[in-house]
Design a protein that fits this description.
Oligomer: single chain
Low-confidence stretches: none
CATH class: Alpha Beta
Strand content: over 45%
Largest sheet: 7 strands, mixed
């Protein structure tokens, strides 16, 4: 029996939806549950490697005193899975709007568009987020 590539694509889309829900629910554990250890991030002209635990702590900080009002795709994500279903990637473009408290306790609003690519590798039968390359408009 062959590999069902559509099913594998749907698994990646499910991970993306779980990440969206993690933002809305301010759940740092759910946010990093699919991350490799370490995960590679490319942003602002830099490449960094961050452990899953450090990423979790970072998200706990981001989520503290924050409320996400929107984390919505502006267009359907582009998803590809290798023929042997061991590698996959997803390109997405997402509008994000949140409120948070700054250092002085004042409530601030931030809105932006994220566009990026996330690569995945199948490890022990599960998709794992290996690399996140992001841009912010």
């Amino acid at each position: 029996m062959g590999i069902d590539l559509e099913q594998e694509k749907n698994k990646l889309l499910e991970i993306s939806e779980n990440i969206r829900q993690a933002h809305l629910e301010l759940d740092a554990d759910a946010m990093v549950s699919s991350f490799a250890d370490p995960v590679i991030r490319v942003a602002r002209g830099a490449i960094s490697r961050i452990s899953r635990e450090d990423a979790r702590q970072n998200y706990k900080g981001y989520f503290r005193d924050s409320v996400y009002h929107e984390v919505d795709d502006l267009e359907p994500p582009i998803v590809r899975v290798s023929q042997d279903a061991t590698m996959g990637w997803m390109i997405s473009r997402t509008r994000v709007r949140l409120t948070y408290k700054d250092e002085s306790g004042d409530e601030m609003e931030r809105a932006f568009v994220y566009a990026g690519i996330v690569t995945y590798e199948k490890q022990d039968g599960e998709w794992v987020r290996m690399v996140n390359v992001s841009t912010i408009e």
